[in-house]
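Q: What does the assembly look like in three dimensions?
Context provided by user:
Components: two
Sequences:
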Amino acid sequence: MAKAADVCVTSVRDWVRKYGNAVLDDPTNGIIGIGVGKKSTGALDDDSGFCVTGFVQRKLTRKQLKARAIPEFSASFAAVSGSRPEQQALEIDVVDAGSTFSATPKLRVDKSQRGPYGGPPPSVDLQKKFEAIRGGIGITNPAGAYPEFLSVGTLGFIVCDPQERLYLVSNNHVIANENDARKGNVVVQPGTLDLTDTELDLMDTLARLRNRLRIAKLSAWVDIEFPTAAQIPFNEVDCAIAEIEQSRRSVTEAARIGLGGVSRGLGPDYRIDADTGRVAGSTRVYKAGRTTGWTEGEVVALNVLTDVEYGAGVARFRNQIAIKPTADNTGPFSNRGDSGSGIYNETHKLVALLFAGSETRTLANPARKVMSALESALGRGRLTVVRG
Amino acid sequence: MTREKPKRAKRGRARTPSTRSADYSDIRRALARHGAEILKQIPLKKVQLSQPVDGAGARICVSVEPGEEQKVPQSIVIRIGGRNVSIRIEALGDYETFKAQKK
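A: Here is the predicted structure of the complete assembly.
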């Protein structure tokens, strides 16, 4: 025997199927949608009875309805089905939808913005805890700062050594704290700046934080050299590497770039054609970073020499890549918190490691320089970028 | 009536007969290996050097603070591979401070 609630939902569903169109076809009643709901407006599995729910852009009082000559929902109900709800043993409710229903933005994606190897551009939600680690998500080395100070940068990309150990790569200033870290320091994901109040309460000491959120141990880094009284040294990379503790999180998505496509391995260096003065190949680049998510940029200058501000002082860099957002990008190519992002070319090959930015430009280390510098610093043989 | 073309003041070093003009490869080499030498010839503190990728001629772009462009020489000479090479300089008033992007 059917339960009372089953009978009720069937009656409501049948009514909606039979008369729903007619209600929506009447332009005078203000109903923009109709369906099966709960009189409680709660979840469909709560204990209350089912009802015919009419959606309106804005709920009005009886007086306002009368003043605007809009029929009440019960009258519309009766007009299309011949009798009022109570005479049909049905209940009705009107729900304020706030606006008309429209297709969710980004349901349609411009083909030019779609990576050749992945899905549509991801949403900016790279700040949460990920069960499967990947490039583009928030990380930090909390040693010496937590819980007094919170921080976050980005996990750039994942590499493996000849023994098939996996490592994450980011900036020195993200996971080696501008030369101030120790080998074996724990890298946590998400960054401490992205923890909720409840999480901060739960992990109120560095030990508790490490215990719950560690994903890797700092293995090596390339020192950032700051000026001395005697000289201003040139830096070429801001990078560090940490061995992933595979027992802590899944590595099945290690080749993925944020929530989008996948890495296709290490790309070539940018070279300027000796005859034309232009870059051979495309200058279009993409990155997924903790703050600005998936962005699109254009390489505008190579071999850049500039000073960069750090917490510990100003360091001079040379041989850097300068990037500006494309006209299609809605904001900057990067922002604070994106440090450490891997930058990919049109075929999703890694070309650079993001580390600094100004008002309008982003600065990145050439990826091949990063790889060779990390191979030297780590001393475990050739490193390979994990690819999908 | 003849009109005399106004002479443009040369602020950079004069080219000597043994000096050649830089090509795109020289620009890359100069920025990669002779940064300190180039900076010495630009009498400003806030300077960024770069190689543009627009194909509009072999040159170094020098970004300085707005209004300081006139202090940048139009060309510099450095020694590459045992020869003096003259490098064209394009001064831009678009200097911006770069900051490490960790939060």
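Follow-up: The first helix of chain A runs from residue 4 to 25.
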